[in-house]
Structure formats: C-alpha cells, structure tokens
Specification:
There is one protein chain. This protein is α/β, with parallel strands linked by helices. The protein has 10 helices and 5 strands; from the N terminus they run βαβαβαβαβαααααα. It folds into 2 domains: about 1-125, Response regulator (Rossmann fold, 3-Layer(aba) Sandwich); about 130-210, Arc Repressor Mutant, subunit A (Orthogonal Bundle). Strand 3, helix 3 (about 60-70) and strand 4 (about 75-80) form a beta-alpha-beta unit. InterPro entries: CheY-like_superfamily, NreC/VraR/RcsB-like_REC, Sig_transdc_resp-reg_C-effctor, Sig_transdc_resp-reg_receiver, Tscrpt_reg_LuxR_C, WalR-like.
C-alpha cells in the first residue's frame, strides 16, 4: 500500500486528484491540504510515501514547501504538479529535493504510474528536465568535483538522469543488471544520498557551484 498526501490549492483539481487516487486500491490517502502552510504544520503526522504537491500555491510555493518539508519527511518522495512542461519552476523543484513531476491534465493512468514509479525508486521527469540534468554530466571536465566517482559510475549516473531503468542501462553499457545495481549503491554511498534523483541533485549542486560543469 502506497500512502499519499496532497497539497493543492485549486479545489476542483484537488477533488479530482482524490477521486483519481481512490480508484487505485494500492493507494491510501493520508492527508489533503489546500496550502503549504497547512501541510507543513500537519504532514509530519501523515509521513506519506509520496506527497503530491502543486508548484504554484497561492502563498508559500510548492518549491519552498519541499525545501522545508525535506527536513522532517526524509523518506517521503515529492511529486510536483505543474501546468507547463517547460516551466523553469519544475527544474527548481527538482533542485529543492522533489523526485519528479506530472502535468496537470495527465490521465489517471499517468498519475498512477508516476506515483508507483517514485515509490519504487524511479523518477518521473520530462525530456526537457532530463536534458538539463544530463547537460551537467556531459559538460567538459576541468578541475571537476566528481566525489570520487569512477568514469563508469558517471556513465551510470548520466543514464539514470535520462530515466533509464537498470535493465536498459545494463543493455546500453553491456554489463549485468546486478553490476548496474552495485554501481548505483556505490554512487549513493559516495554522495550520501538514498536515490537517483537525490544523487543527481547533489552532484548538480556541487559541480555547478564549483563551475566544473555547465548546463546546456
């Protein structure tokens, strides 16, 4: 059972999300909030597996909510909602610690899939956002901060950012899925993170600040 909390200030869409989630018997709704402030004061009681968060809330934004909530919801995956695929706020939300996003207007199958994927350790990310993240890893290296990652581990991290699954990465690199898993474990250990989105976010933060890589 995947527990979910919702933070959405638009009543009609909030009610729609509830109906869509209730269809799936694998989901259980823990909390429903109309503002980031309300969620910050109560979601610590929910401790949901996945928090579905609107980016453009009326007062405190969904991005600011994620930044603050990560401190007491370290095991919650944050799935952002946005109306625009190329919205720069989506990328900022990922940097803040979100694990992915869905477009408002997505089908209930797409919403269910995105939530399940996040819960299973994946990341729901558009080609636009993935390209921005991969631009970091494909930049020229000069005095780079790589956290001691090997060339192969950097390749795996790059392919993870493209949204590839372990099996797809193993096929592309001609290595076994178990080897890919071991590389991922090493990457997470070296970066002191728990999943691939956190790994990409942390690598992004430090390498960007050190001017080692640049987004295209």
């Amino acid at each position: 059972m995947i527990s979910i909390s919702i933070v959405e200030d638009h009543e009609q869409y909030r009610n729609l999300l509830v109906k869509v989630l209730e269809i799936n018997k694998a989901f259980t709704i823990k909390g429903i909030y109309s503002s980031a402030e309300e969620a910050l004061s109560k979601m610590h009681l929910d401790k949901p597996d996945v928090a579905l968060v609107d980016i453009k809330l009326r007062s405190l934004s969904g991005i600011d909510f994620v930044k603050r909530a990560k401190s007491f919801l370290s095991f919650t995956q944050f799935l952002m909602c946005t109306s625009y695929q190329n919205d720069e706020n989506v990328f900022n939300a990922l940097k803040a610690g979100a694990s992915g996003y869905i477009l408002k207007g997505s089908s209930f199958e797409e919403i269910h899939s995105a939530i399940t994927e996040l819960h299973n350790g994946g990341a729901s990310m558009s080609p636009y956002i993935a390209k921005r993240v991969i631009g970091l890893l494909n930049g020229k290296q000069s005095n780079t901060t790589t956290f001691g990652l090997s060339e192969r581990e950097l390749e795996v991290l790059s392919l993870l950012g493209k949204g590839l699954l372990y099996k797809e990465i193993s096929d592309q690199l001609s290595i076994s899925p178990n080897t890919v898993k071991n590389h991922c474990k090493n990457i997470y250990k070296r970066l002191h993170v728990q999943n691939k989105v956190e790994a990409l976010n942390k690598f992004n933060h430090y390498t960007t600040n050190s001017n080692s890589y640049a987004f295209s």
